[in-house]
Write a sequence for this structure.
């Protein structure tokens, strides 16, 4: 089940509150920066959903920022992240943030990535009740990540030492369709194989959960697009509902609807 071949050490951190029902909200910070609260008011609040957010993503930059230096992009993305948490907290809502994403595209060295974690962590401390859990990375084995450290357990031990122990923490998932990643943390996230049925993926996550003795969240349960692309994107509400039913039946950690 573990593609690394070793389960991370036990942790005294709290785990996430389960089941975690969340929705990827990667452009929420950019929307809020322009005063657009519709995603909060029409999606998150009515359905009591957690917002899964990526602090900075190379592939989701506004077009006008593509000529900026990587550091300038990271700085403005962190500012938007602060705006996001500041908007969620008074509404009684929470985020599930991914701190590091596209590290190879941004050209971050190990030391620079750790410094980015520290800067993001300082924002988390400003709005602790708006944090459902903290994912250190997105898809750790993906080619857009720096493989010399994003799959190194010692790196995630350093990140774990930075993050305040009141927060639930996970290093992140493997690339979509890989085995459940168990590099440490107080809960696990998994990006399932979209060519499999919801039941098949839930069985894989349950096996990982039973071994690691930690909740596993189906973190990119479905990639939505119209029309769908077999094995990559689907346009089928029943698939989402089936994943939710499997999560409840098997006692998994939760499901993230991923409309990206």
């Amino acid at each position: 089940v573990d593609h690394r071949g070793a389960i991370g050490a036990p942790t005294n951190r709290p785990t996430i509150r389960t089941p975690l029902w969340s929705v990827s909200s990667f452009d929420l910070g950019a929307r809020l920066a322009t005063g657009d609260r519709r995603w909060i008011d029409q999606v998150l609040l009515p359905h009591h959903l957690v917002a899964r957010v990526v602090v900075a993503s190379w592939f989701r930059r506004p077009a006008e920022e593509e000529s900026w230096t990587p550091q300038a992009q990271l700085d403005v993305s962190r500012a938007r992240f602060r705006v996001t948490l500041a908007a969620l907290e008074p509404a009684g809502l929470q985020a599930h943030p991914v701190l590091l994403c596209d590290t190879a595209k941004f050209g971050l060295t190990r030391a620079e990535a750790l410094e980015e974690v520290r800067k993001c962590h300082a924002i988390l401390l400003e709005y602790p009740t708006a944090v459902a859990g903290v994912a250190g990375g997105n898809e750790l084995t993906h080619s857009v990540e720096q493989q010399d450290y994003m799959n190194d357990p010692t790196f995630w031990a350093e990140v774990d030492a930075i993050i305040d122990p009141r927060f639930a923490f996970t290093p992140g998932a493997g690339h979509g369709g890989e085995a459940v990643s168990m590099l440490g943390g107080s809960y696990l996230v998994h990006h399932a194989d979209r060519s499999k049925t919801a039941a098949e993926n839930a069985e894989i996550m349950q096996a990982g959960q039973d071994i690691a003795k930690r909740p596993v969240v189906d973190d990119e349960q479905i990639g939505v697009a119209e029309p769908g692309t077999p094995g990559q994107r689907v346009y089928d509400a029943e698939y989402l509902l089936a994943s939710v039913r499997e999560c409840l039946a098997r006692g998994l950690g939760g499901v993230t609807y991923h409309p990206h």
